[in-house]
Amino acid sequence: MPLSPSLHERLFTTLKARFATDMAVFTPLLVRDIHLGFVNTQYAQLLRRDLGEYIRARDGVLRFNCDSWLQAADLLQNAAWGWHESGLYSGWRNEPFTVHDDAGNPLFSLERSAFRPLGFLSHAVHINGWIERDGQRLYWIGTRSPYKAVDPNKLDNLVGGGIAAGEDIATAMRREAFEEAGLPPELLRDVPESGCRLSCRPVSRGLHREYLHVFDVHLPADFVPQNQDGEVASFALMNVSEIAEAMSAGQFMNDAALALLDAFARNGELDPTHPLGAWLDNLAQVITPAA
Q1: What are residue 182's phi and psi, to 5 degrees?
Q2: pLDDT at 19
Q3: In the chain, where do the E strands start and end?
Q4: Which of 102, 119, 223, 245 is most buried, judged by most C-beta within 10 A?
Q5: Is the pTM of this model over 0.85?
Protein backbone atom coordinates (compact mmCIF):
# COMPACT_ATOMS: atom_id res chain seq x y z
CA MET A 1 0.00 0.00 0.00
CA PRO A 2 1.51 3.39 -0.96
CA LEU A 3 2.56 5.93 1.63
CA SER A 4 0.20 8.79 2.38
CA PRO A 5 0.19 11.83 0.04
CA SER A 6 1.51 14.09 2.81
CA LEU A 7 4.42 11.73 3.50
CA HIS A 8 5.20 11.59 -0.23
CA GLU A 9 5.40 15.39 -0.23
CA ARG A 10 7.67 15.58 2.81
CA LEU A 11 9.97 12.90 1.42
CA PHE A 12 10.14 14.64 -1.94
CA THR A 13 10.96 18.02 -0.37
CA THR A 14 13.62 16.55 1.95
CA LEU A 15 15.40 14.43 -0.64
CA LYS A 16 15.39 17.08 -3.37
CA ALA A 17 17.15 19.43 -0.96
CA ARG A 18 19.67 16.84 0.21
CA PHE A 19 20.63 15.82 -3.32
CA ALA A 20 20.50 19.26 -4.92
CA THR A 21 23.68 19.61 -7.00
CA ASP A 22 24.75 22.66 -8.96
CA MET A 23 27.08 21.10 -11.51
CA ALA A 24 28.06 24.58 -12.74
CA VAL A 25 30.42 24.91 -9.76
CA PHE A 26 32.36 21.79 -10.82
CA THR A 27 34.86 21.59 -13.68
CA PRO A 28 34.90 18.39 -15.77
CA LEU A 29 38.17 16.47 -15.36
CA LEU A 30 39.47 14.45 -18.30
CA VAL A 31 42.25 11.93 -17.67
CA ARG A 32 44.12 10.83 -20.78
CA ASP A 33 41.24 12.30 -22.83
CA ILE A 34 38.52 10.31 -21.03
CA HIS A 35 36.04 12.19 -18.90
CA LEU A 36 36.29 10.65 -15.44
CA GLY A 37 35.57 13.30 -12.82
CA PHE A 38 34.47 16.73 -11.66
CA VAL A 39 36.45 19.08 -9.42
CA ASN A 40 35.44 22.18 -7.51
CA THR A 41 37.51 25.37 -7.56
CA GLN A 42 39.68 24.31 -4.63
CA TYR A 43 40.76 20.99 -6.13
CA ALA A 44 41.12 22.41 -9.62
CA GLN A 45 43.66 24.85 -8.19
CA LEU A 46 45.42 22.08 -6.28
CA LEU A 47 45.71 19.94 -9.40
CA ARG A 48 47.25 22.85 -11.27
CA ARG A 49 49.63 23.51 -8.39
CA ASP A 50 50.77 19.93 -7.81
CA LEU A 51 50.49 18.41 -11.31
CA GLY A 52 50.93 21.55 -13.37
CA GLU A 53 53.13 20.05 -16.07
CA TYR A 54 50.42 17.46 -16.82
CA ILE A 55 47.38 19.74 -16.54
CA ARG A 56 45.84 21.88 -19.26
CA ALA A 57 42.73 24.04 -18.81
CA ARG A 58 40.72 24.92 -21.88
CA ASP A 59 37.08 25.74 -22.63
CA GLY A 60 36.01 25.06 -19.04
CA VAL A 61 37.59 21.60 -18.90
CA LEU A 62 40.68 20.33 -17.07
CA ARG A 63 42.76 17.83 -19.02
CA PHE A 64 45.26 15.63 -17.19
CA ASN A 65 47.50 13.84 -19.67
CA CYS A 66 50.40 11.49 -19.02
CA ASP A 67 52.01 8.46 -20.63
CA SER A 68 50.07 5.60 -19.03
CA TRP A 69 47.28 4.70 -16.61
CA LEU A 70 49.92 3.47 -14.18
CA GLN A 71 51.53 6.90 -14.21
CA ALA A 72 48.13 8.57 -13.83
CA ALA A 73 47.40 6.44 -10.77
CA ASP A 74 50.79 7.20 -9.23
CA LEU A 75 50.56 10.94 -9.79
CA LEU A 76 47.00 11.24 -8.49
CA GLN A 77 47.68 9.00 -5.47
CA ASN A 78 50.70 11.08 -4.47
CA ALA A 79 48.82 14.34 -4.95
CA ALA A 80 45.89 13.12 -2.84
CA TRP A 81 48.25 11.88 -0.12
CA GLY A 82 49.84 15.31 0.00
CA TRP A 83 46.43 16.98 0.36
CA HIS A 84 45.56 14.61 3.19
CA GLU A 85 48.92 15.06 4.94
CA SER A 86 48.59 18.84 4.81
CA GLY A 87 45.19 18.65 6.49
CA LEU A 88 43.04 19.56 3.49
CA TYR A 89 40.88 16.51 4.04
CA SER A 90 40.67 13.62 6.50
CA GLY A 91 39.47 10.05 6.27
CA TRP A 92 42.35 8.37 4.42
CA ARG A 93 41.30 4.71 4.25
CA ASN A 94 44.24 2.79 2.73
CA GLU A 95 41.57 1.09 0.62
CA PRO A 96 41.80 1.28 -3.19
CA PHE A 97 38.76 1.65 -5.42
CA THR A 98 38.81 1.11 -9.18
CA VAL A 99 38.34 3.93 -11.68
CA HIS A 100 36.36 2.75 -14.74
CA ASP A 101 35.62 4.28 -18.11
CA ASP A 102 32.03 4.77 -19.34
CA ALA A 103 31.93 1.23 -20.70
CA GLY A 104 32.85 -0.20 -17.29
CA ASN A 105 36.41 -1.12 -18.21
CA PRO A 106 38.85 -0.82 -15.27
CA LEU A 107 41.54 1.81 -15.83
CA PHE A 108 43.46 2.12 -12.56
CA SER A 109 43.08 1.92 -8.78
CA LEU A 110 43.13 4.87 -6.42
CA GLU A 111 42.73 5.52 -2.71
CA ARG A 112 39.04 5.52 -1.84
CA SER A 113 39.10 8.88 -0.05
CA ALA A 114 40.47 10.61 -3.19
CA PHE A 115 37.34 9.85 -5.22
CA ARG A 116 35.31 12.75 -3.80
CA PRO A 117 37.99 15.45 -4.29
CA LEU A 118 38.32 14.31 -7.91
CA GLY A 119 34.63 13.60 -8.45
CA PHE A 120 35.33 10.09 -9.71
CA LEU A 121 32.47 7.59 -10.00
CA SER A 122 32.56 4.81 -7.40
CA HIS A 123 30.36 1.76 -6.83
CA ALA A 124 28.74 0.40 -3.67
CA VAL A 125 26.42 -2.44 -2.66
CA HIS A 126 23.31 -2.05 -0.50
CA ILE A 127 21.08 -4.76 0.92
CA ASN A 128 17.50 -4.15 2.00
CA GLY A 129 16.62 -7.00 4.36
CA TRP A 130 12.97 -7.48 5.29
CA ILE A 131 10.60 -9.92 6.95
CA GLU A 132 6.84 -10.37 6.84
CA ARG A 133 4.84 -10.19 10.06
CA ASP A 134 1.04 -10.01 10.34
CA GLY A 135 0.77 -9.19 6.64
CA GLN A 136 3.17 -6.26 6.95
CA ARG A 137 6.64 -5.83 5.48
CA LEU A 138 9.23 -4.85 8.12
CA TYR A 139 12.77 -3.81 7.22
CA TRP A 140 15.85 -4.36 9.37
CA ILE A 141 17.41 -0.93 9.92
CA GLY A 142 20.85 -0.33 11.40
CA THR A 143 22.04 2.53 13.58
CA ARG A 144 25.61 3.46 12.77
CA SER A 145 28.26 3.39 15.46
CA PRO A 146 28.82 6.70 17.30
CA TYR A 147 32.51 6.23 16.48
CA LYS A 148 32.06 6.23 12.70
CA ALA A 149 33.95 9.04 10.97
CA VAL A 150 31.07 9.57 8.54
CA ASP A 151 27.46 10.01 9.72
CA PRO A 152 27.79 8.56 13.25
CA ASN A 153 24.46 7.53 14.86
CA LYS A 154 22.59 7.88 11.55
CA LEU A 155 20.08 5.25 10.45
CA ASP A 156 21.17 2.92 7.66
CA ASN A 157 19.73 0.09 5.63
CA LEU A 158 20.72 -3.43 6.63
CA VAL A 159 23.99 -3.47 4.63
CA GLY A 160 25.91 -0.85 2.68
CA GLY A 161 29.54 -0.62 1.61
CA GLY A 162 31.92 0.23 -1.20
CA ILE A 163 33.18 -2.17 -3.85
CA ALA A 164 36.94 -2.43 -3.41
CA ALA A 165 39.47 -2.71 -6.23
CA GLY A 166 39.54 -6.25 -7.61
CA GLU A 167 36.05 -7.14 -6.36
CA ASP A 168 32.99 -7.82 -8.46
CA ILE A 169 29.53 -6.79 -7.31
CA ALA A 170 28.49 -10.21 -6.00
CA THR A 171 31.72 -10.70 -4.02
CA ALA A 172 31.42 -7.27 -2.43
CA MET A 173 27.77 -7.92 -1.58
CA ARG A 174 28.56 -11.19 0.22
CA ARG A 175 31.54 -9.66 2.07
CA GLU A 176 29.62 -6.61 3.26
CA ALA A 177 26.61 -8.78 4.16
CA PHE A 178 28.67 -10.79 6.61
CA GLU A 179 30.76 -7.91 7.98
CA GLU A 180 27.83 -5.61 8.67
CA ALA A 181 24.97 -7.96 9.49
CA GLY A 182 26.32 -11.51 9.85
CA LEU A 183 24.29 -12.70 6.86
CA PRO A 184 25.39 -16.24 5.94
CA PRO A 185 26.01 -17.17 2.29
CA GLU A 186 23.01 -19.52 2.16
CA LEU A 187 20.61 -16.59 2.64
CA LEU A 188 22.19 -14.80 -0.32
CA ARG A 189 22.31 -17.66 -2.78
CA ASP A 190 20.78 -16.70 -6.14
CA VAL A 191 19.77 -13.23 -4.88
CA PRO A 192 19.76 -10.98 -7.98
CA GLU A 193 20.63 -7.31 -8.14
CA SER A 194 17.27 -5.60 -7.82
CA GLY A 195 18.11 -2.06 -8.87
CA CYS A 196 20.80 0.53 -9.43
CA ARG A 197 20.65 4.26 -8.64
CA LEU A 198 23.15 7.05 -9.05
CA SER A 199 23.80 9.06 -5.90
CA CYS A 200 25.28 12.46 -6.69
CA ARG A 201 25.62 15.33 -4.23
CA PRO A 202 28.17 17.92 -3.13
CA VAL A 203 30.07 17.11 0.05
CA SER A 204 32.68 18.93 2.09
CA ARG A 205 35.45 17.03 0.31
CA GLY A 206 34.16 17.65 -3.22
CA LEU A 207 31.55 15.66 -5.16
CA HIS A 208 30.08 12.29 -4.19
CA ARG A 209 29.20 10.24 -7.30
CA GLU A 210 28.40 6.61 -6.63
CA TYR A 211 26.35 3.88 -8.24
CA LEU A 212 24.31 2.03 -5.62
CA HIS A 213 23.82 -1.62 -6.56
CA VAL A 214 20.73 -2.62 -4.60
CA PHE A 215 19.75 -6.11 -3.43
CA ASP A 216 16.48 -7.08 -1.73
CA VAL A 217 16.59 -10.08 0.62
CA HIS A 218 13.45 -11.63 2.13
CA LEU A 219 14.80 -12.93 5.43
CA PRO A 220 13.46 -15.70 7.71
CA ALA A 221 11.16 -14.32 10.39
CA ASP A 222 13.50 -15.49 13.15
CA PHE A 223 16.71 -14.02 11.65
CA VAL A 224 18.38 -11.32 13.75
CA PRO A 225 21.35 -9.45 12.21
CA GLN A 226 24.63 -9.44 14.11
CA ASN A 227 27.26 -6.84 13.26
CA GLN A 228 30.80 -8.27 12.90
CA ASP A 229 33.02 -5.23 12.28
CA GLY A 230 31.96 -2.76 14.98
CA GLU A 231 30.47 -0.27 12.50
CA VAL A 232 26.81 -0.79 13.52
CA ALA A 233 25.61 -0.01 17.04
CA SER A 234 22.22 -1.77 16.81
CA PHE A 235 19.48 -3.09 14.53
CA ALA A 236 15.72 -2.63 14.72
CA LEU A 237 12.68 -3.57 12.66
CA MET A 238 10.75 -0.66 11.13
CA ASN A 239 7.72 -0.53 8.89
CA VAL A 240 7.56 1.54 5.71
CA SER A 241 5.81 4.54 7.26
CA GLU A 242 8.26 4.67 10.17
CA ILE A 243 11.19 4.59 7.76
CA ALA A 244 9.69 7.33 5.59
CA GLU A 245 9.05 9.51 8.66
CA ALA A 246 12.66 9.06 9.76
CA MET A 247 13.91 9.89 6.25
CA SER A 248 11.81 13.06 6.22
CA ALA A 249 13.33 14.05 9.56
CA GLY A 250 16.87 13.66 8.18
CA GLN A 251 17.72 10.67 10.36
CA PHE A 252 18.90 8.40 7.51
CA MET A 253 22.16 8.33 5.60
CA ASN A 254 21.54 9.74 2.13
CA ASP A 255 22.54 6.67 0.12
CA ALA A 256 20.68 4.31 2.47
CA ALA A 257 17.55 6.38 1.88
CA LEU A 258 17.93 5.97 -1.89
CA ALA A 259 18.47 2.22 -1.60
CA LEU A 260 15.36 1.83 0.55
CA LEU A 261 13.26 4.02 -1.75
CA ASP A 262 14.41 1.82 -4.62
CA ALA A 263 12.80 -1.13 -2.80
CA PHE A 264 9.69 0.88 -1.89
CA ALA A 265 9.14 1.73 -5.55
CA ARG A 266 9.48 -1.93 -6.55
CA ASN A 267 7.13 -3.11 -3.82
CA GLY A 268 4.31 -0.68 -4.58
CA GLU A 269 4.93 1.45 -1.49
CA LEU A 270 5.44 4.63 -3.55
CA ASP A 271 2.75 6.21 -5.70
CA PRO A 272 4.08 5.93 -9.29
CA THR A 273 2.16 9.07 -10.29
CA HIS A 274 3.82 11.27 -7.65
CA PRO A 275 6.83 13.40 -8.74
CA LEU A 276 8.95 11.53 -6.16
CA GLY A 277 8.89 8.49 -8.46
CA ALA A 278 10.10 10.44 -11.49
CA TRP A 279 12.82 12.07 -9.39
CA LEU A 280 13.99 8.66 -8.19
CA ASP A 281 14.04 7.27 -11.74
CA ASN A 282 16.26 10.13 -12.89
CA LEU A 283 18.94 8.92 -10.50
CA ALA A 284 19.74 6.13 -12.91
CA GLN A 285 21.30 8.62 -15.33
CA VAL A 286 25.05 9.17 -15.57
CA ILE A 287 26.10 12.83 -15.28
CA THR A 288 28.21 13.86 -18.27
CA PRO A 289 30.20 17.04 -18.89
CA ALA A 290 28.55 19.93 -20.67
CA ALA A 291 31.63 20.51 -22.83
Answers
A1: 65, 25
A2: 95
A3: 27-31, 34-39, 55-58, 61-64, 96-100, 106-111, 121-133, 136-144, 155-156, 159-162, 193-203, 206-218, 232-239
A4: 119
A5: yes
